[in-house]
Amino acid sequence: MIKNIFFDFNGTLLNDTKLCFDIESEMLKAENLPTADLEFYLDNFCFPVKKYYELVGFDVSDSNFQRLSNTFFTAYTNRQEKETSLNEGVKRNLEKFKKDGYKLYILSASEENILKLQLEQLGILEYFDAIVACKNVLALGKIDYGKLFIKENKIEPSSTVMIGDTYHDFEVAEALGLKPVLYTKGHNSRKVLEKTNAPIVDSFDEFYEFIKKEN
Predict the structure, then answer these.
(1) 3-7, 80-84, 158-162: least confident range
(2) What span, in angstroms and rounded, lies between the C-alpha atoms of 210 and 106?
(3) Dihedral (C-alpha) 81, 115, 209, 39: value to the nearest 10 degrees?
(4) DSSP label of 126
(5) Exposed site from 130, 183, 193, 204, fewest CB < 10 Å?
(6) Residue 145 pLDDT > 90, yes or no?
(7) pTM greater than 0.85 (yes/no)
(8) Residue 166 in contact with residue 191, Cβ under 8 Å?
């Protein structure tokens, strides 16, 4: 029986794909590098972000990657409130999950302080029992701090689902022993998500119905 739900944030709860794509395109232009189209982004975006940056041509040596990360962080922070929104159906389904008694968590590669600010701005912070997020701006992996959180809070993986929007979210769920569900309106294309053979949903209404059927 499903008792716990972990949500990825960027691309899953938050519709920020276009903003991220736009910022990275502007960064490529500033480095005099060719830009890719959105289809390429959706088919190739991955974690760690450093790997994607290297793919599109950025110099990802340690000092330069830090500079690129800071550039992205600053632009994203300045623009996210005006240029992002919740994905359709998120809030009403969070309300339903909470009313039904599920424990709700966020597991995100987003920087923790930015994430909490966004959740407050979006009016959904209250729905979550805990926020598990990155402590810096480098968008490093979620697996290690996810494992630690699950162990410390005695969460039973077999009773837990994780929903995310990328192939990496599938990898994270598998590494944590959670049941993965993938959402198609985020940072990876359906074509990429289908490679996992995990359940796929196109909306949060569909995700709610999926969880109800599982129980």
Answers:
(1) 80-84
(2) 19
(3) 60
(4) G
(5) 130
(6) no
(7) yes
(8) no
